[in-house]
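Q: What changes when iron/sulfur cluster is included in the input?
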Amino acid sequence: MIITKPREWARIQENLAGIGARRVFLIGCGQCATVAHTGGEKEVAEMAVRLETEGVEVTGWTVAEVTCHLNGTKLECRKHQEAIDAADAVVVLACGAGVQTVADSIPKPVFPGLESLFLGTVIRNGIFEERCQTCGDCVLDKTAGICPVTTCPKGLLNGPCGGMWNGMCEVLTDRECTHVRIRRRLDEQNRAGKGTLAPKDFSTALKPGGVNIRGQGGGR
Ligand code: SF4
Ligand code: SF4
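A: The predicted holo structure follows.
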């Protein structure tokens, strides 16, 4: 899921002050931002109270089911048309994709209420770890399901590097070296050593990505 954190309050204030916004509508996200405790009902309601305390009128708020889903978000905005029309701006508590989806759905200034950090795993409630950089050329089949691109601080496909010590990473010294973990898991699963991975084709990571499963081929 996309991991987010609250945006610095001063930047939100600056965004609103920049257009002289005195009335605001808030939109959260029922998916990742809810799980991350950054843009669910509780966080949106808290932001509404904070804005009201600072003299900004909140014309309304909602938590869209999946804010990065264009048709669903357009529908959600239509349900709150009156309150959105009454607002000078909309602040979105969702990842950057969600913010852009709202901005594509309404003709109002739309501002981010969160910072998007990474694509990660929920280790347990409130603990998240980055696990994938969406490189478009996955090597997890050869690395026992452990991503070296993301979890090795140097992004080394082959390792360990010369700094590994007693199985631990030389950069993140409280963590086991990614390549030690990969080798151990491959051994535990009686899988042949991965050998040396060839250099990755980073053209597959060119931005912006796009997929059209209705069209021929799809892909980036
Ligand atoms: S190899 Fe690429 S696609 Fe696979 S998990 Fe790592 S960053 Fe993500
Ligand atoms: S010690 Fe291992 S995980 Fe750390 S930077 Fe070197 S190869 Fe990567």
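Observations recorded in class: The chain is about 30% helix and 20% strand.
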